[in-house]
Design a protein that fits this description.
Length: 154
Amino acid sequence: KEIMPDTCHIRPLKRSDFHRGHLDVLRGLTHVGEISEAAWTERFDWMKRCNGTYYTLVIVDESSDASKSIVGTGTLFVEKKFLYELGTQGHIEDIAIAGDMQGKKLGVKLIQALDHIAKEVGCYKTILDCDPKNAAFYEKCGYGKAGQEMHHYY
Ligand code: ACO
């Protein structure tokens, strides 16, 4: 079985990552739309100002062209609650590995890194929603099925 290539490393999303293919990786997950660098940077800065709320990681493949060197991304969103003695709950969101890099253990490494941050910032648990076809992947990452996703589009 393949292991994470040693040309790849995980790090936090940087303000200069627009040109490294961040949005193209996300396009493998769902609709993204056409987003200018200015708009992307404004959103990046907004998230940064929400100190300690958004932790977006990227996987960078040093062996790829710079413009497509981001081959994976995912976000931990940290929710502060009144419940559970002012508890903190993690949400894993927007996980995507580039199509040609799937199956090399990058996804599991990314989830492990986000789980590590969640524990470090004091989350008592982390939850996520996924397509049923990805449930086996998250089970391999230590997640268990719970509840039922509901949504309401506006
Ligand atoms: N079904 C069953 N098993 C799977 C699946 C799957 N869909 N995907 C991976 N696995 C298994 C692998 O076979 C591997 O098993 P092993 O340890 O026995 O060898 C293990 O899970 C780890 O796999 P990785 O190689 O780490 O998986 P990968 O890097 O390909 O990442 C991911 C998986 C994130 C689902 C990737 O395929 C992807 O980006 N898909 C498209 C976008 C997507 O669906 N993202 C998830 C959205 S849900 C959310 O964001 C909360």
